[in-house]
Amino acid sequence: MITGIHFLLTYSCNLTCDHCFLFCSPTSKGTMTMKQIRTVLEESKRLGTVRETYFEGGESFLFYPVLVEGIRFAREMGFEAGIVTNGYWATSVEDAMLWLTPLFQLGISDLSVSDDELHYGDRPDSPARCALEAAKTLGIPARSLCKAKPEARQSPMSTDDKGTPEISGGIKLRGRAVEKFAGGLPARKREELRDCPYEDLRDPKRVHIDVYGTVQICQGISMGNCWKTPLSKLVSEYDAEKHPICGPLVRGGPIGLIEEHSLDLKGEYVDACHLCYAARLDLLGKFPEHLGPRQVYGLE
Ligand code: SF4
Ligand code: SF4
Fold first, then answer.
1. Which of 124, 191, 211, 295 suits 231 as a labelling partner, its CA being 20 to 30 A distant?
2. What sign for the dihedral angle of Cα 66, 68, 73, 79?
């Protein structure tokens, strides 16, 4: 049952983080219009199960007027609205309050601010901290999102139940994170990768929707295109078993995806998402309706 709609308001971002699984950068294209946001919200209402919306990217504050207006519309329709940002706009606490006051007045339910070494290195004056301080002063519910460069943990306490070193840092090995980090990490045995560890593909609780109409169940896996088929119809007709990517994944994880599509993937893989992403790259041309957009695969 879908309870959350996440707008990928833009793929554009002022940063180009190594761990970005959407391949966002200052040159990325693709920003939603107000008309598209309204269409998705109206369809979300039709679903009858959606409670929460999130506005994220890319960097959602790069298109501030659209962000504010989108949230206004979401709130008027009775949805909760949260935001994910890297906080680049918070040049001081005082100035950050200018950006946040209109959002506070709209009653946003969450401001999640990326505040870690991957975004800001060891800068003691990261703008994320100003953003969080301003949110606290105004009384906006806010939290900091912290991730770290992935590393294999060496301690026996941090191995999984098969004795395989766990990867620390909270980074999922998809998108640019694969290019930047996978090389230095220990490989898992492929036969262990028979589950999708993070997404409930049979019964997704939230989807991410972008400017192209891609309704993403996991980044780069699409339920369909909501500019061609209304979102409410896509969601009500979604059946993971019949989906050419989710079906194999729910039956056998990334290994199931490889086996059912008879892929001949060489190489070593660090975890399930790494193998899943590699398999999907191989299938991109065959299933353009179910895998995309190309931006998320680093191809735009
Ligand atoms: S991880 Fe966030 S801040 Fe970094 S490039 Fe991607 S969208 Fe931008
Ligand atoms: S295994 Fe695939 S579908 Fe599951 S969370 Fe990882 S990338 Fe997403």
1. 295
2. positive
**pLDDT tens figures, 84-133:** 999 999 999 999 999 999 999 999 999 999 987 878 877 777 899 999 99
Question: In sequence order, what are the beta bridge partners of 7?
Answer: 55, 209
Identify residue 261 by its one-letter amino acid code. Answer: H
- Evaluate if pTM is beyond 0.90: yes
142-145/110-114 β-pairing:
parallel
Closest ligand (CA of 256): 2
Cα separation, 174 vs 3, whole angstroms: 24
d(CA 36, CA 73): 12
Closest ligand 1 atom, residue 56 Cα = 7
Which residue reads 């992935």 in tokens? 150
Q: How far apart are CA 16 and CA 103, in angstroms?
A: 26
Q: What is the Cα Rg of the chain in Å? A: 19
